[in-house]
Design a protein that fits this description.
Elements: E1 11-15, H1 22-31, E2 35-38, H2 39-45, H3 52-61, H4 74-81, H5 93-119, E3 124-127, E4 142-147, H6 150-160, H7 167-180, H8 184-189, E5 193-196, H9 201-225
Parallel strand pairs: 1-3, 1-4, 2-3, 4-5
Length: 238
């Protein structure tokens, strides 16, 4: 782990593809008293009207991406950065430009919130769908991936789309996002722990409890007294 946090304690990265149920797992950790830093929320906040990123994004793409409240319309911007003809696994030039604008601000706020959580004595979880794609693993000691099969992923992801969106467009929107995310096999291979979220939620909750009480909480308490020790990477089947 690259030491980006000045406060002692454990930081865990939580990731997963669209429709994996990652937010449900994050909420379970939160119920157990863990501090959650939500990169998606931060990503939205850095684009709010009045921020530096907002000004730069509007300057680059124009006012056509704004809604009636003059905030950035994520749907309109999404159609630009996730074009339907983009080859799988290849970021569009527009997405690369957007990331270059947003990521410095996101990284700064992520670090601030992680340190704030550690300062309270909790261990912290960085909840990020693009944790591995953006180098976010440099901020954490362990990576936990929430995993589902492709059929489940698509069903859940399409269900999240606005009900006013036609079914064909829902599929295209989901396909475009999946194409920009890391392949499932690679994501799992780069993780220390995997939560199989295909079955009943009770099973996933038991997996979370095992990780929390059996590994993360004891490690965190140890680090509070020995914060110079680095956890050893373990097999994802733990």
């Amino acid at each position: 782990m690259k030491q980006l946090n000045t406060e002692p304690g454990l930081v865990v990265g939580l990731t997963g593809g669209i429709g994996s149920g990652k937010s449900t797992i994050a909420n379970r950790f939160k119920e157990l008293g863990v501090g959650i830093v939500d990169a998606d929320v931060i990503s939205d906040e850095v684009m709010l009207r009045g921020t530096e990123a907002y000004e730069e994004i509007v300057k680059y793409w124009g006012k056509a991406i704004l809604n009636e409240s003059r905030e950035i319309d994520k749907g309109r911007l999404g159609e630009i950065v996730f074009p339907k003809d983009q080859p799988p696994g290849v970021k569009s030039a527009a997405l690369q430009r957007l990331e270059a604008i947003k990521h410095p601000a996101i990284g700064h706020e992520v670090d601030r919130q992680l340190q704030a959580n550690l300062r309270l004595g909790n261990y912290a979880i960085l909840d990020s769908p693009l944790l591995l794609e953006t180098g976010g693993e440099q901020r954490v000691h362990y990576v936990v991936t929430v995993d589902v099969n492709e059929a489940t992923q698509r069903k859940r992801a399409e269900a999240r789309e606005d009900e006013r969106v036609a079914e064909g467009k829902k599929r295209r929107n989901v396909d475009a996002i999946i194409a920009q995310q890391m392949a499932r096999t690679e994501r799992n291979e780069r993780s220390h722990f995997i939560v199989n979220n295909n079955g009943p939620i009770e099973e996933s909750h038991r997996t979370v409890a095992t990780m929390h009480f059996g590994r993360f909480l004891p490690m965190h308490l140890t680090m509070l007294g020995k914060n110079d020790e680095e956890p050893v990477k373990t097999d994802s089947s733990d």
